[in-house]
Design goal:
With 242 residues, this protein is mainly β. The chain contains one helix and 15 strands, in the order H-E-E-E-E-E-E-E-E-E-E-E-E-E-E-E.
Length: 242
């Protein structure tokens, strides 16, 4: 008899709990939909025109995406002469596939540099499942870091880097998995005097003005000498109207 009483009481408690949960959920509305990240933009750097040199200055004209603005920073980002100095658009054969690859290249920069891209119409919300996909080839001791410029004008470099590679490597990573960020001086593209690292939650990554990359080093020449190349980059997140 006592066992039956316990079972009845447990059943009544369970029914009441389910009823209370259902009422509360109805009052609070349906659970919010999970945040999704969509492709905001992709940039493939433009191949050389017929008869043009294999290496030319990287300028706005070399962007494929008409909605993007090219921003070059640091002493290494200053325009050079021909193909002897500065950030270049390089057109060379991929030794693994034999295909011609057009890519942003840092081999003849004479100082630190950064290449950032700015969407003309939108800020970038890089919270939640936002991510970057790219095809890169750092060489020597060079390693490529993501760089962002926030709506407040501050520039930050990620404590995440793609290591050097003999061949082109395609990779993706979530912004939220970057452990920390450090301020970057946009004039020198060197770490800022503020030595305090900040984690993602301490930055307003819901309103990013520009995004790009740097290896924080000058170039050291062609071939397997120290340089960085970026074939293409994709940014996933949510657009925020300017």
């Amino acid at each position: 008899m006592r066992r039956t009483t316990y079972l009845v009481a447990a059943a009544i408690f369970l029914v009441c709990a389910v009823s209370t949960y259902t009422q509360q959920r109805g009052q609070n509305g349906p659970a919010p939909a999970p945040k999704r990240a969509s492709l905001i933009f992709r940039e493939d750097f433009k191949g050389k025109a017929p008869g043009a040199e294999a290496e030319i200055q990287l300028t706005q004209d070399q962007l494929m995406n008409p909605n993007l603005l090219l921003r070059l920073y640091g002493p290494g980002g200053k325009p050079g002469h021909g193909n002897q100095l500065g950030l270049l658009l390089n057109n060379n054969e991929d030794p693994a596939t034999g295909d011609i690859v057009s890519y942003a290249w840092s081999g003849v920069t004479d100082g630190n540099w950064a290449i950032l891209l700015k969407d003309k119409n939108n800020y970038l919300d890089l919270t939640g499942p936002a991510k970057i996909r790219w095809r890169v080839r750092p060489r020597g001791t060079h390693q490529l870091h993501p760089v962002v410029k926030l709506a407040d004008g501050t520039m930050w470099v990620a404590d995440y880097a793609e290591p050097s590679s003999t061949y082109w490597r395609e990779n993706e990573f979530f912004i939220v998995d970057i452990p920390r960020w450090r301020t970057l001086d946009e004039n020198t593209v060197a770490e800022g005097k503020d030595v305090v690292w900040k984690i993602n939650s301490q930055l307003n990554l819901s309103k990013v003005d520009e995004i790009g990359f740097s290896d924080l080093m000058r170039g050291s020449g062609n071939g397997t000498q120290g340089n960085s190349g970026v074939d293409w980059i994709e940014v996933y997140g949510a657009p925020v109207k300017r």
